[in-house]
Each structure stands twice: as structure tokens, then as C-alpha cells.
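Quick one, C-alpha cells below. Sequence please?
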């Protein structure tokens, strides 16, 4: 795992889980010019660097010295590192001291979060559910609220059961069938089609190799097979005749929504 030291602004690699320091983790949607792994040592002239520093400052207020951000803590030019990171995402978000969700399209604390892009993306479903708690912030880094107190509103926005949204609610995931958990991803979008399958691995405690270019149907089939082998719940079988390459259509059967 690679973390950013907020005091030195240097990336540090930890191969031993026992040595990983307490860290904060960021959940956000990608913009046009993010600070990437290769950019982290460049002069901080981009607005994105300033936003990264704002995140570090906020994390410092919670008493942590390190942070994790997907854009700059993963070398996406390495396919093996990317695959390992995507398969580790669940545990990284789960083990963070805190998770901050940055809603870049919410400008004030009085603005409704109902139309924020953050609630529509594939990877942020896992990031919504997995952390013990989430702190939501506006574009200007004003505090909006925490997940547990916003649970009713978030449930209406996402369909995710309120019990899962309460503090440490991820422990209740096994109480919900595979089909119901899949239904939470019904309308979510990803930039790369395969990520619609890959982003769900953590919700079922499974791991599959990431093979970009295989297409959503192949990726989802492999995910289905791994879930079937791992999770003692055969509601996944109800999905065998669904064409997942047309994910945007209403491929999730309405009778399993909850």
C-alpha cells in the first residue's frame, strides 16, 4: 500500500500490513485534471494540488499523518499494481481511520446533495458502504454531515438499506441477498465498462483479476462465478439470462429491489 505523508508530501510504500500507519482516505469523483502518481513531485501549481493539500489539512485535524487518494497513490501505468489495488480497495477503505467524501459539485452546505455525481458512480457505491463512517464535504471544504445522520436521505438517493448506512453498517452486508446488493448498483455508471463488475468485488468479499478490454459481459460473468463459489446465496442464478453488455437498461429485475 502506498500512502502520502501529509507532513513531507512524499509517497511512502508499506509492504507489511502491520507497519501501515493510521491514515485517512478520500472518496471523490475524478475531474479533468487530477494529480496523478507521476505528478506528485511536480511543482504544486494546479488547482488539483491545492485541493489535495486541503484534504491533507482536513485529515490532519483528525490526528492522522498519512492519507490515501486513488489518483496519486496508485501507479496506473502498471497493470499489475492497478489490479492489486482494485482487489484491495475494500480493505483499504475499511481499515482507514476516517473516510472523507468530497462532493465537488456541491458548492455550499445549504445546497442539496441529491444531484451530486458522487452518488451515481460505480466505485463510490463501495466507498459509501465500507468505511466505518464518512464525513461529507462541499467543493469549498465545508462540512456537510456524516453518513449515519444523513442515512435517510442517502437511502432515498441510492436505494441502499438504512441499516447499511448507519455507523459501521457494513457488518450487516451478509444480511442482504446477493441480488439485493447487486440492485444497489443498478443505475451507477463507470468510465470503463468493466469497472461496473470490478467495483462490486468488495461487496461480496471476492477477488478476480482485472482484464480491461474483456467487456462488461465477460467481466460480470467472472464476477458471478466467483460469487457463486464464495457466497452461500444462489440468488445470483436469477441473473444468468441477463445481457450485461446493456447495463444502462433496466437489467436489474424490479421484484428484487428493496
Amino acid at each position: 500500500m502506498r500512502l502520502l505523508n501529509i507532513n513531507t508530501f512524499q509517497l511512502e510504500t508499506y509492504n507489511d500490513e502491520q507497519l501501515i500507519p493510521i491514515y485517512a482516505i478520500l472518496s471523490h469523483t475524478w475531474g479533468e485534471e487530477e494529480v496523478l502518481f507521476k505528478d506528485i513531485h511536480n511543482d504544486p501549481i494546479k488547482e488539483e494540488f491545492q485541493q489535495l493539500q486541503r484534504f491533507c489539512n482536513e485529515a490532519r485535524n483528525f490526528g492522522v499523518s498519512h492519507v490515501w487518494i486513488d489518483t496519486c497513490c496508485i501507479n496506473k501505468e502498471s497493470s499489475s499494481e492497478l489490479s492489486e489495488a482494485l482487489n484491495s480497495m475494500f480493505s483499504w477503505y475499511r481499515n482507514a481511520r476516517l473516510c472523507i467524501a468530497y462532493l465537488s459539485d456541491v458548492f455550499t452546505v445549504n445546497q442539496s446533495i441529491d444531484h451530486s455525481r458522487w452518488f451515481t458512480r460505480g466505485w463510490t457505491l463501495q466507498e459509501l458502504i465500507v468505511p466505518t463512517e464518512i464525513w461529507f464535504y462541499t467543493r469549498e471544504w465545508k462540512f456537510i454531515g456524516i453518513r449515519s445522520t444523513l442515512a435517510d436521505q442517502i437511502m432515498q438517493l441510492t436505494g441502499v438499506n438504512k441499516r447499511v448506512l448507519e455507523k459501521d453498517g457494513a457488518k450487516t452486508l451478509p444480511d442482504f441477498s446477493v441480488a439485493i446488493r447487486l440492485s444497489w448498483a443498478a443505475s451507477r455508471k463507470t468510465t470503463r465498462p468493466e469497472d461496473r463488475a470490478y467495483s462490486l468485488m468488495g461487496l461480496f468479499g471476492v477477488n478476480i483479476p482485472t482484464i480491461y478490454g474483456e467487456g462488461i459481459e465477460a467481466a460480470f460473468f467472472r464476477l458471478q462465478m466467483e460469487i457463486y463459489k464464495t457466497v452461500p446465496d444462489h440468488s445470483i442464478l436469477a441473473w444468468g439470462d441477463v445481457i450485461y453488455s446493456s447495463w444502462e437498461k433496466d437489467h436489474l429485475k424490479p421484484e428484487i429491489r428493496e
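Strands lie at 2-5, 10-13, 23-27, 66-68, 98-102, 134-137, 143-146. The CA atoms of residues 1 and 34 lie 20 Å apart.
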